[in-house]
Specification:
The complex is a heterotetramer, with 2 copies of chain A and 2 copies of chain B. Chain A is of the alpha+beta class. Chain A contains 2 helices and 5 strands. Chain A has one domain: Roll (Ubiquitin-like (UB roll)), CATH 3.10.20.30. In chain A, strands 2-1-5-3-4 form a 5-stranded mixed sheet. The chains are: A alpha+beta, B alpha+beta.
Chain lengths: 78, 146, 146, 78
């Protein structure tokens, strides 16, 4: 049983990985996923999503979830 | 209401014509069409831009663009809405995004169009990386206040 | 900055494409295009509309449309502006007016486009007469407050 | 020497003429032109222009001017 972790844009480059599966043992929220995956504390200006819905660091994560981390978004136009 | 994500260059004006012709129920029923097209410039923050890569979180972008479009449709009396957003490799002068709104009156058309373009910029998971003569750089989000 | 009055039906999207292609200095320099197109509906104030005649005071309309366009250009940082207005006999679904603005950023593009369409409605000497099943009637101006 | 008077839209229909030239003798302002041309006082909700610039009823009119009368404008779109 596991959690899928995804990284995008500059976060992906900094972390050096795009996607991984981590064991959900000992993981209760979004910040735990980040810590488990990167071995450092979750930065303030990072955005996260659980199953493609924006999520706060303290939001609970369940087995089978897809958790994504990314910088502030910059789509659209000038 | 249509939301499309495209990997290839598109002509927003042709897409608008096609959409309007395909929605035959619209004919004669709308008095106002408001369109916003965002285009890649060949400069940004005092640097030349040679190309841009638009990364996105594929099904999440579609989901959130559809939600923003649905919100606009429920807040204002509009007849139809079309949103097209590029991703992948873009060249200067390429359209990035197109938002078109059909409504009976112009107040609703302008308000809904503005709402969609403003909201998608803060909620749809896209990230721009520019190629400049000084190398690649990720574009920072624009400040909130306007 | 271009202001045109047309006696014949026109395709606003094609006009925009032509204008943009003809202004080669624009390429790569604008990030935002905002367009408003006003179209004749087949109904108004609970009556069917079969056709409309748009009377105008010929050189005065051109003069005042150019003035409104020049005001928009001086108030906001925009790169180019196109205004096309029909007169004469129109059928439902015919475009009446098209305002297109090219700018570096969307705030200026939206503001200038909205300014032109709002100002021309109160300052350009056009008068609409609708043909309805109950006969011809002159259209009353819309209330000021919005 | 004369003043060209023009009428548009519903005003043209009500007055029953589109254009005429009137003698400028005894005419000093826009309201005088209307009175001379129609034999009634100028209504409140009427718009007027001198040489294609909007003008108030008390604005002075000179020999050779084109003075136009019309209802509130209704161009543009819904």
């Amino acid at each position: 049983m596991s959690i899928t972790v995804r990284f995008f844009a500059s976060v992906r480059e900094r972390v050096g990985k795009e996607r991984e599966a981590i064991d959900c043992a000992g993981i209760s929220n979004v910040a735990d996923v980040w810590r488990q995956s990167t071995r450092v504390a979750m930065p303030d200006n990072l955005l996260a999503a659980i199953n493609m819905e924006y999520a706060r660091p303290d939001q609970p994560v369940r087995d089978g979830d897809e958790v994504a981390f990314f910088p502030p978004v910059t789509g659209g136009a000038p | 209401m249509t939301v499309r994500l495209l990997a290839e260059a598109f002509d927003p004006w042709r897409e608008i014509v096609h959409h309007q012709e395909a929605q035959s129920a619209l004919a004669g029923k709308f008095g106002a069409t408001t369109v916003f097209v965002g285009t890649l410039r060949d400069f940004n923050q005092d640097r030349a831009v040679r190309a841009m890569t638009l990364e996105h979180y594929a099904p999440m972008t579609q989901k959130h663009l559809e939600r923003v479009a649905a919100e606009a449709s429920s807040r204002w009396p509009i007849a139809d809405l079309l949103v097209i957003h590029r991703y992948g490799e873009l060249s200067p002068n390429d359209p990035i995004v197109c938002v078109a709104v059909w409504a009976e009156r112009r107040e609703a058309a302008f308000a809904a169009c503005r709402y969609v373009i403003d909201e998608l910029k803060t909620r749809a998971p896209f990230w721009k990386q520019e190629q400049t003569p000084q190398g690649r750089r990720w574009v920072a989000p624009e400040p909130k206040a306007e």
